[in-house]
Structure formats: C-alpha cells, structure tokens
Amino acid sequence: MDTSNLSDENELERQFEEMPTTENNFDREGEKEKEKIVRELEKIDAVRKIMEERYHYGVLKDFVNHLASTEKVFVLAGIKKFGGDEIMNLFIQSETEVMSDDTGIDEDVFSQIKEEFSKTCKTVGDIKNVSDKLMQKYPEAEKFIEYITNYLIVLLHTSGSISGGDFDIDKKRDETIHEMMVKIAENDSAEIEELEKIYKEFKEELNN
Fold this sequence. Notes:
The protein is mainly alpha-helical. The protein contains 8 helices and no strands.
C-alpha cells in the first residue's frame, strides 16, 4: 500500500504542533479553530484504535490506517471545512479500486470498512460533543462526565466483537456507570441522584 499519505499526515501534524500560539499569531477565533482541529485529530485517533480492534490483520488493518491517515491529512490541510468530504471520498474510492485489484479482495469489503469507519467517526464525534456540552453545564461533575465519555468509547472497541448469547451490553454499561456514581459520590444518595440525572441527560442527548 502507498504510505505517502501517512508521511503527509505525520509531517502536517508536526508542523501543526510547532505552530506558535502567541497573541501576535492567533486571535481568539484562531485559538478556537486550533482547538477544534485538535479535537478532530483526537477523534480520528480514537476511531483508528476502535477499527484496528475489529480488523487486526494484513491489508484490512492497513486500509483502516489508510482511512485514518487520509482523514487527518484532509483535516490538517484545512480542506474538509471547504466541502472536502466529497473530494476525499472520491480519492478513497479510487484507492479502494486499486487495492481490490492488487489484493484480490472484493471491493465491497473495503467499502463496508469505509462505511463502518464513517459511522464510528460520527458516533465518537457525537459522544465528545455531548460531553463538551454537559461539562459546560455541570463543571462540578467533570470527572464523572469524562468517565462516561471514555467508557462509551471503550464500549465501541468491544461492541463489534460481542454478538448473541445472553450478554446485554446496555445493561452492563448502565451497571458499570452506576458503580462509578456510587464510588464518586461515596454513597451520598443526593449526589448519586444528581449523577443519575446527568447520565440520563447524556443518553438522551446522544439519542436526539
């Protein structure tokens, strides 16, 4: 597989990290834009890890890394905010055709992984957006909201490998988060009730 986009990703990230942050170079809007890009890169890294758990080996794992690297190159180059998604999708489509010819793997397999990657990106993005919103609303519960956020993303690592049987992932999720509520609140029933309210709101926001 052509790894030039991975090299581009690494070089662009290095340049981005080395950009000065003095007032002479960034106004407030510039700082907000930089923070937005950092969050987007973190989201892509989280999705890369999730997808690598599902596709461990060979060319499929390489393709996951290729998708992540391409996403990051387009973000860092500032193309996505100017309608670059369509350009990026055309680029990836041409790459999948070449990879299918080179490997003998049906093109539909790569298309399915691309679709799964996009859906996971959206899910992780939704989780992080709700987290940011609730942290502003409930700053005193920042530790708990951060725990919910990280745990829901961790569940995405396992959800692709859990199927059938009597395992109820939603029940397990709620039980685990309730255990954290009790630990954080130190059995204070009033505080547990407040954390229950925040968790309920988190789930409602995700389902909207």
